[in-house]
UniProtKB/TrEMBL annotation, chains A, B:
This is NAD(+) diphosphatase. Residues 162-286 form the Nudix hydrolase domain. Its cofactor is Mg(2+); Zn(2+). The gene is nudC. It comes from the Bacteria. SUPFAM superfamilies: Nudix. It comes from Sphingobium nicotianae. Pfam families: NUDIX (PF00293), Zn_ribbon_NUD (PF09297). Its EC number is 3.6.1.22.
Amino acid sequence: MTQTTLAYPRPITFTGGTIDRADHLRIDPERLAAAWADPRARIVLLDGLDPRPTADSLLATSPVPPEAALGDHALLGLRDDGTPVFVSLIVIKSDEPPVFPPKVWQVIPQLSLDEAALYGAARSLVDWHDRHQYCARCGGKSHPIRAGWVRQCEICSTEHFPRTDPVVIMLAEYEGKVLIGRNARFPPRRFSALAGFVEPGETIEEAVRREIMEEAGVRCGRVDYLFSQPWPFPSQLMIACVAQALDDRIVLDENELAEAVWVSKDDVRAALAEDENALFLPPSPVAVAHHMLRWWLGD
Amino acid sequence: MTQTTLAYPRPITFTGGTIDRADHLRIDPERLAAAWADPRARIVLLDGLDPRPTADSLLATSPVPPEAALGDHALLGLRDDGTPVFVSLIVIKSDEPPVFPPKVWQVIPQLSLDEAALYGAARSLVDWHDRHQYCARCGGKSHPIRAGWVRQCEICSTEHFPRTDPVVIMLAEYEGKVLIGRNARFPPRRFSALAGFVEPGETIEEAVRREIMEEAGVRCGRVDYLFSQPWPFPSQLMIACVAQALDDRIVLDENELAEAVWVSKDDVRAALAEDENALFLPPSPVAVAHHMLRWWLGD
């Protein structure tokens, strides 16, 4: 199976997972209980929402502890050999004070493509349960059902599904240059592609044009889809696009961006090569924006 | 501005809205209050979640009533001439018993492209507020803030954003035929494209391949994006794709589909022409699946 589109053959972090999500088990209590009782079954170990590396593995798993309850776990799927993989929906936070940047950013680049994809799905799902313990319709307590892929309200029985928020992330292109921006929260010189949430009532293409107009005041016409990436902080679907700008005059929205600049292929090449004279620092290779710049160079 | 992609120039219902969402007003209480007080300001009239047609208009609007409160309304945006357009977040349900099919299906095909897009955004937003009156984190009551584009919990202050659920909808292609399916809830002979929600931790392309495999047992390789459509029942982003199947053997998941068949261009042409001898009844022109079949014919 191709991991991304043919237009960009490099692997992108959090894509390319090989686990079979086995959704037929989610709705079949007997087969789900059999998977849970399978002596090969494993549980992905998390520390809060982060991986809990062991001496043997960066994304460690354990057998199912005898005291563990199926109802507190989500089925992530079946490995190629049929091994069921679960994750606990009870978030166990470490006593250590949080450090910045979080440890997770040191671990993720060292995971295999498949491990990162499994971790991304697990993190998004566990975090969603942790932040959605109550029914948004009536305020009642809810609990996980269907192998952790649904929550149901204990008062009004409404079913709630994990959120995945579509986000457009895009390069506007004009006369051999692309538009990149620096969020005010980023360190100096760190630039990325512009991005924003798709709102109810708009297409991907309309969201791309709206966000570029809002953030940089640049009007765009044609929009082309490039590739996508699930982003587990907390649960976005990053939809990467390229838009054709109709002019290059920038009117910055300072609530959104500290800077926005048009950069050439030479500028991008120097940044990705981490040349000390580069105009800007590129986005992390973990981020889809990094791959959008590589795609634009024709790498 | 192009309404859809260049690959498919026909208009698709709920796309092509021209209203300026004016997100800068959402975070600026003074300018928002000025828009609300603008004597030109209009409120889209709904009956429950459906349009409330008048003798003059299928998607009628009224001036702001003197007793109305800004905090109970969402700003949909500004028209080209600067007219602010709002919608009430208080759902007023009609006393009439619901009929099937709902009246909304009679009105939508008669709306202009721009009216349908405005209605779609309004319906999704109003419905989201109606179904999310409580905080999913703590169970407290929440209320709309930022011109109706956020809700905030009155207990724990958590902010909640409107949901938009990405859904992949796709044609699998094999040797000059495409795969279509009949949901068990559909009437006899009514077929559409296969579809399913994108889950946390997967790309658009991975979701397309997973759904076709789950529902019809067909393995696919390359996936190409076609176009997208916001679908306000309640708030999906329909992401239309075409996938290249690796073989044509179907293993039906009867929990998902009643039937799945491979159809030729002649079969699709007869169905779209509503030929009485056609193999199947096509999806409604309001649905993106209708346009996917037209795109496949090269119309």
